[in-house]
Amino acid sequence: MRVLFEKFHSFRVLRIAFAVVFLCVLGFGLIMGDTLDGKTGFMGMQTTFSKAKLQTVLDEWGKYGLIAYMNTMYIDFIFPIAYAVALASGVALVSTEKEKAATPTKMALTFFTLPLIAGFCDIIENSFHLILLPNLSSFGGGLVFLSALASTIKFILMGITILVIAFYAYQRLQARRQSEE
Known about the structure:
mainly alpha
C-alpha cells in the first residue's frame, strides 16, 4: 500500500484524476439531461434498501429515466476509479510532507485506503444495478439490499475521506501559520 501511496502523492495524479471526474460528471449531465427533474435522484435510488421502494423510484423515473440511467453505466464504471484516485491522492498529499520520500503514518495509510474501498463498493453497486434495474421483478430483495448497502458504505467512506482531507489541510495551514510567526 505504501508504494501506491507514494505514486498517488503527486499533484499530477490529483489533477488528472480530477479532470476525469469532471469529464464523467459532464457526461452524466449530458446523458441524463433533465430526465429526472423533480424526481427522486441518483442518491435516493442508490440507497434504497427495499425492493418495493426501488420499484416506486423506477416507476417515478419512467421508461426514459431508466434508459438514461442505464446509458450512464459506461461512465459510471470509470467514475469510481477517478474519484477514488483523486480522493486517495488528496489524502496522500495533505497527510505527509511535500517530499516524495515522506513516510506516511499508519493512520494516513488507513485513511488513504478509504476512497479506494469506496470506489470498489461503487463498482459492486453498479454491477448490481446492471443486473437488477432492467428486470427488478425477477429478483428478490436481497440483491437490492446488498446494492444499497454497498452504496451507503461508499457514501460514508467518501464523506469521511473528505473530512479527513479537510482536517489534514487545516493542520498543515495551522503549522504553516505558526512557522511564519
